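Structure first, sequence second, as always.
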C-alpha cells in the first residue's frame, strides 16, 4: 500500500475506475458500484444516461456541507483533522493481485475528551489545545444523506444500510495506518440538519473491506483474462429494476431500452391524459386544504376542552354533545424507543438483521 499527496482538487474528479501499469485502480467511493459500470468507465465508453443537473446540485451541496459536520464534531468534543481540500492526501491499497483502490480520507481524529462539550466549545472558540485521550487516531468518513437514508442508516447501522461506506473507511485506515482500526461514519441529515455518528469496530470494518475486495476481485480476474477489451464485459451486479441501474450513466449501453426492461407485473390500466391528471391534482389540493382547515378546528376545540378541565381541577368529566353524552379526559400514551447506536455497537450485523427487520411499502407522494 502507498500514501501520496495529490497536487490539486482535481483529485476529487477522478474516474471511478481506470487502468494503470499494474492493472486496474478503483476509486474508493465507487467500491459499491456495479463491476460492469466500472468496466465501462475504465474503457472510456460514452455515457448514455448523464447525471441530471438536479442530482449534481445535490452532490455538490453534500460535499459543501462536509466541513459543517467536522465543525459540529469539534463542538461535541471530537478532535478532528480534516483533509486539505487543495492538496488532499491520497491513499492506495491493494485489494487483490492487479487491483488497487485509491481514495482521499475526509478526516482523522479521536473521540471526545474528558472535558466534554464545554471544553470542546472553549477549544473551538479560543483555539486552545485540548488534552485528548491516549487513543489511536482513527479515520472519520463524513457523509450527507437525505432524511429517509439518514433514518435507515441510524436504524440498521452502516454495515447493513451502506456497507460500501464502511469498506471505504476501512480502506483509508489500511492506507494511513497499515492496519484496520475502528472507523467512524459521521452523517448529516440534509433535511433536519442534525448529525450523528457510528463507530464500527476494527474487526467488522475489516470484514466490510474484505467483502468489497472479494467482489471486485472478479474484475481483476476479468482484466487478467481479457485485457482492456471494451467488448468483452464482466457480469452485472444489479438488475434494471434496482436503483443502482436506474441511476447508472451507462444504463442504455448496458441494457438497451433502460428501465423499460424492468419487469412490471402490475395490471395495465387505461391511459390517463395530462389534463385528467391535472384535474386530479387540483382535487387533491382542494381536499388537502379542507383537511387542514378541519384539523385546525379540531385542535382549537381540544385546546378549549383541555382548559375547561384544568379550571375544574379534574382529569375527566362528562359533557353533553350534539348526539350523546361524551367523556372528556386527559390520557397518557407511552412510547418506547431503541438506542440503535448502542444496539448496532453491541451486535453483529447478522444478529441485528434478526432483531431489526426492514419492511418496504410504496405510496404516492405529492410535494
Amino acid at each position: 500500500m502507498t500514501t501520496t499527496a495529490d497536487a490539486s482538487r482535481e483529485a476529487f474528479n477522478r474516474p471511478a475506475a481506470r487502468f494503470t501499469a499494474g492493472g486496474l485502480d478503483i476509486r474508493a467511493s465507487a467500491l459499491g458500484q456495479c463491476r460492469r459500470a466500472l468496466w465501462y468507465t475504465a474503457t472510456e465508453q460514452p455515457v448514455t444516461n448523464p447525471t441530471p443537473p438536479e442530482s449534481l446540485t445535490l452532490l455538490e451541496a453534500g460535499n459543501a456541507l462536509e466541513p459543517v459536520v467536522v465543525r459540529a464534531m469539534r463542538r461535541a468534543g471530537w478532535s478532528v483533522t480534516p483533509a486539505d481540500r487543495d492538496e488532499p492526501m491520497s491513499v492506495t491499497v491493494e485489494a487483490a493481485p492487479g487491483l488497487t483502490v485509491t481514495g482521499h480520507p475526509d478526516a482523522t481524529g479521536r473521540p471526545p475528551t474528558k472535558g466534554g462539550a464545554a471544553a470542546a466549545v472553549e477549544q473551538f472558540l479560543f483555539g486552545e489545545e485540548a488534552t485528548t485521550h491516549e487513543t489511536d487516531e482513527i479515520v472519520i468518513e463524513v457523509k450527507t444523506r437525505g432524511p429517509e437514508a439518514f433514518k435507515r442508516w441510524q436504524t440498521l447501522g452502516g454495515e447493513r444500510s451502506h456497507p460500501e461506506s464502511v469498506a471505504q473507511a476501512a480502506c483509508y485506515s489500511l492506507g494511513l495506518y497499515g492496519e484496520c482500526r475502528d472507523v467512524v461514519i459521521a452523517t448529516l441529515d440534509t433535511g433536519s440538519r442534525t448529525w450523528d455518528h457510528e463507530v464500527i469496530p476494527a474487526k467488522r470494518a475489516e470484514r466490510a473491506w474484505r467483502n468489497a475486495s472479494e467482489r471486485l476481485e472478479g474484475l481483476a480476474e476479468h482484466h487478467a483474462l481479457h485485457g482492456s477489451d471494451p467488448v468483452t464485459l464482466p457480469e452485472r451486479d444489479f438488475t434494471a429494476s434496482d436503483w443502482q441501474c436506474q441511476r447508472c450513466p451507462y444504463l442504455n449501453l448496458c441494457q438497451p431500452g433502460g428501465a423499460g426492461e424492468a419487469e412490471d407485473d402490475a395490471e395495465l390500466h387505461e391511459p390517463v391524459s395530462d389534463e385528467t391528471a391535472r384535474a386530479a391534482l387540483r382535487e387533491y389540493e382542494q381536499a388537502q386544504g379542507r383537511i387542514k382547515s378541519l384539523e385546525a378546528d379540531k385542535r382549537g376545540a381540544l385546546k378549549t376542552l383541555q382548559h375547561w378541565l384544568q379550571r375544574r381541577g379534574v382529569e375527566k368529566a362528562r359533557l353533553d354533545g350534539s348526539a350523546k353524552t361524551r367523556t372528556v379526559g386527559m390520557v397518557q400514551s407511552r412510547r418506547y424507543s431503541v438506542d440503535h447506536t448502542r444496539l448496532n455497537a453491541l451486535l453483529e450485523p447478522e444478529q441485528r438483521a434478526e432483531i431489526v427487520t426492514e419492511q418496504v411499502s410504496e405510496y404516492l407522494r405529492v410535494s
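Margin note: The first helix runs from residue 35 to 42.
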